[in-house]
């Protein structure tokens, strides 16, 4: 009992930490780019790009071409399934009962009849994953997005999402339930799955990192747009109307 | 006689087709307000073309040419190009703007053609259309093999005189914003030299 309380306390503490970190940034303007740390971020971006070119991309090619497709799929499925309890917890924290139910159902079905999640029968039954993480939970709770930050190794993020990532180290009940050495499997599979993604989306990622005139600005824009879309923080007012741009009027009204 | 009839039929079919597309997309000079249904019809045509292109099994070069045709037929390339160029467009001459629009259309259809080519083996389905501000939003779903379905949204307006799409969102990432950032960075790299940018876009 005391053990459980200690764990719960740690999650609670982490949550408070997350809120206070995200809370100290300037007011949120979710349609704009707030990047006061741009020069530092650009240095981190150069580091990340070098890391990708010299290590991540080459390894992903070996992985993508060397490991059979079905094995890659199994590894990705296993990693995704092992992270579901965290998505379940976050869906509950967000008050998203349907999402929690969906993730809970997926986890039970895939773990029991999908060989510990290596297969994904739940998707075939029409129950796809409802991704949820603590960065999203913070957004639902009303925390501001904060400044854009590019994290070493992990890549584009915001202050809110970075805080969320720290908290998510503690939000997966599975990590408390598994003992060594089995508890090493999900992170290893997760890392392998990342290399698989890097390989699978190689053309798109390469086009941003190596073909864009300003890969930093492009990666920042792509991250913020897709993250705001995922978190559900998009609104009609933010939609660009190119016909109403003051100096962009091609056609007379 | 047979030959004549055939010609007649095919000409009539073609004219009907042309008339139908005018009716659906509107004509310059003919005031015909866009409706959710006609915006949907336009996007359905775009999506049907994309579906047949990505599953045609043709070479990349041929596919990219097909995408350029899609942009020219269904996209408001003047508006997209001018928005991408942003404030720098103000100092451009008419001739420069026309050359930029051509070069930009070539560049963007190759760029987005490559991305859509990755949808090979999948298909896009049109869902719902609704009015937003002064234009229409048509939501579609891309269903690719081995991936969770994702959202592709087209924004359609008839303020060019014809119903045409002027922005595409793939999972929330929109073309206008991305291209203004990209074209701005490309222009900075060329110290603001628009003619140099036009030459490079042509070679894209």
TrEMBL record, chain A:
It comes from Parasulfitobacter algicola. This is VacJ family lipoprotein. The keyword Transcription does not apply. Keywords: Lipoprotein, Signal. Pfam families: MlaA. Belongs to the MlaA family. PROSITE patterns: PROKAR_LIPOPROTEIN. It comes from the Bacteria.
